[in-house]
Specification:
This protein is α/β, with parallel strands linked by helices. It contains eleven helices and four strands. A four-stranded parallel beta sheet has the order 2-1-3-4, sandwiched between helices. Strand 1, helix 9 and strand 2 form a beta-alpha-beta unit. Helix 3 crosses helix 4. The N and C termini lie far apart (51 Å). The mean pLDDT is 89. The structure holds a DNA duplex.
Length: 198
DNA sequence: TCGCCTCGAGTTCA
DNA sequence: CTCGAGGCGA
């Protein structure tokens, strides 16, 4: 694999020393993403953001995961025969093994990340589950999620009777209706902050 | 068999 | 962002 050199950049217009250094540093930085993030990007059927996070709690790098059998995987909460098989199949494909080789030789080989063990025992929202619908004024969706999770709450994306609160924004979808019919308490953005103790 | 939850793809809007 | 499909656990 060809590795971009600092001198390559210096030949380009507009790339004086500092800018070149910044770019190279930025590229290096991009290789330091959490394992769960890379796992999601592999495109294994049934493995999205949440599943990937769960998997990294049991397997701390791709080598370990690639050696897992279907039975091993099914011991994990939320992983059944179907998903387990999809994972085993993915790692058995020669084309995918090549991808892994390339990642490894490019230095993209994350091990388990710092995050995710967000202990749910702390924070004002501990033990509560939230569903967010509509658009928030002061938050991006990711932002609301982080806000809630950092205070011990959990964010899921469909309303059920287990949902503690529905956080309602502008232009809500069908979730608002469902929450109402289930008698789920509805929170405005401000009410959420209040509940969180702001 | 059913309800809950995640995934994944389609839509809409700035 | 929404919403339907389908996997998983009970």
């Amino acid at each position: 694999m060809y590795t971009l050199k600092r001198d390559d950049l210096l030949g380009l217009e507009g790339f004086a020393g500092k800018k070149a250094d910044n770019l190279l540093a930025s590229i290096q930085q991009s290789k330091q993403q959490p394992l769960a993030r890379l796992l999601t990007a592999l495109g294994i059927r049934g493995v999205g953001e949440v599943m990937a996070g769960d998997l990294t709690r049991y397997y701390s790098d791709l080598d370990q995961l690639s050696r897992a059998t279907s039975d091993d995987l099914q011991l994990i909460e939320g992983v059944g025969p179907n998903t387990a098989q999809a994972i085993v199949d993915w790692f058995s494909r020669p084309a995918n093994r090549k991808i892994l080789d390339k990642l490894r030789s490019a230095g993209v080989w994350p091990i388990v990340s710092q995050e995710t063990t967000s202990d749910t025992s702390k924070g004002n929202l501990a033990g509560m589950t939230f569903v967010v619908t509509g658009t928030m004024a002061d938050f991006t969706r990711q932002g609301v999620k982080e806000y809630i999770e950092s205070r011990g709450g959990k964010v899921i994306d469909s309303v059920s009777k287990n949902t503690s609160y529905l956080v309602l924004g502008e232009n809500p979808g069908s979730k608002a209706e469902k929450a109402r019919s289930l008698g789920i308490p509805i929170l405005s953005e401000g009410a959420l902050r209040q509940l969180a103790g702001e």
